[in-house]
Here is the input.
Amino acid sequence: PSRAAFSGPRHVSRRSLFLSGLLPLLPVFVSPAGASPSVSEKYDGYASTYDTLDDGQIARTLGLADQRRATISLARGKTLEVGVGTGINLQFYVPERLQSLYAIDLSPGMLAQARQKRVGGGAGTATIPASFEVANVEEMPFEDATFDTVVDTFSMCVYTDPQRAISEMARVLKPGGTLLLLEHSKSKSNRLLGAYQDLTAGPAAALGGKGCVYNQDVDGLISRVGRGVLQVVDRAEFLGGLIVAYVIR
Here is the structure.
């Protein structure tokens, strides 16, 4: 796919930059699939009100719903979503393009919310088999080369070992399959913004970001999986490089 695969606003207004600076202080855009059990228990407590925050006005103003839709709509075949949380992304899948959907998360409470949602948000007539399982993305209970598509959105920042997590995603992906990522990342296009992230990432993760380290080098995580294992075929930055979307094969 070309960059046209990703839609939605890329222009960064002053208001958007201000709001994006609040990202690490909000319990939004984060899912606990690779977190410790204690964090999983905390997310059980957030589950009933999580959608109000994660799909609320700030997220919509920043265009994150548009970016979720653009990313998720590319999923095809037998698909795995890691860190599914309460299932915010389920509405954006195109049922006619899926064979089946597997969704994992560490939080039973979050998964209980996800099970109440329909794949595709009720659009279309296709019925997609969906499975929801409590599992850790850093040690997934799937055989090698199982899935045509693997999806992760806004979860890499909270994994205990993000390198292991992305390596596991690569392991369960079929040859020729697609890994779709939409992640927080350290801005490379705006040095001042990147420096601000470095200064605030630790305190923000500890104080209000639910453990989300929002200045990760996602490009580096991808490249370190192994030479030639994952190839980025499309990459798009949003909000001054704070959010990056990838299509990887």
Q: What stands out?
A: The mean pLDDT is 84. The two ends are 11 Å apart (CA to CA).
